[in-house]
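Hi there, hope your week has been kind to you so far. Please have a think about how the structure follows from the sequence. I've dropped the whole record in just underneath, so have a look:

_____
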Amino acid sequence: MTVVAPRQARGDTTAPSGSSTTPSRWHAISPLLVALLAAGGAALMYEVFIRTGLGQTVDTNAMRGGDVHHEQFTEVLSRTLNATQLVVLGVVCLIAVIVGALRRRFDLAIGVVLLVISANIAVQQLKSHLGRPDLDGSGMSNSFPSGHTAAAASVAFILIMAFPRALRGAMGLLGATYVTIVAVATVWAEWHRPSDTIAALLIVLACGSLIIWVIRLRRFGNPRASFTPARVATLPLTLVGAISTAAALFGLATLAVSERVMPDLVSGRFAFLTGVAGIVAAVAGTFYFWVRLTAGDPLPGPVEGGTT
């Protein structure tokens, strides 16, 4: 006799493989810890690269090592980066809100708006109020942290946050590439030092993590699926992050020794490439954590075929 399996109940929340249906306390508190670590990292960048003479010198040399003196290129770059702060930011924010609303994730729709507003206001306020003592003799005003990088990172973060789970890995890689180009371009054009861009990334991550923390607290105990992050994003980000971090640390150590012992030992181009390695490492690290945080977002309703 053939036994027919009973039909799955309509409200069944059975999750697909690779997910957990019982969010733990660690799941709820981990975004807060990431936010605190990111904020602490931004503060450390300020203390090391703004409030010490060696840090300022290394940072400024990295910015000046790109040697871009082409007026037409600088003009095109300026227009592109300004568009990042204005048109692109507004349009992408609107798209993310619409996607969140269509998915009936109104908490995410509100979250993307709060992320954009909080991250960009925080960066602009810090830039306006933080002091920069002239310890390297450059006489340049404060540019810490980078508003262009914060705008680009917030654009990428809200797209990863609002789009369905199946697209978040690809969006993470595309977003990381886009933010890397913008951040390196601002240093290449000598608008920002590497520390400015890295601090901006950390501030955006801190703001985004706090929003994810609030969303998880709101849904704490809700027996919905919590998915593991897409390896299509986490594996490349881990690999790139490890390589670029090693290169950046080696470069920083070399620059520090050169500045103390023999100032002309390394070239400006080496300093610039060290700054680029630091930016790439920061982008890979922040996007790795963001992809993991957004992948672990509990669903608002029944899981049907793994759709979020």
Remarks:
- The radius of gyration is 22 Å.
- Residues 33-64+88-295 form one domain.
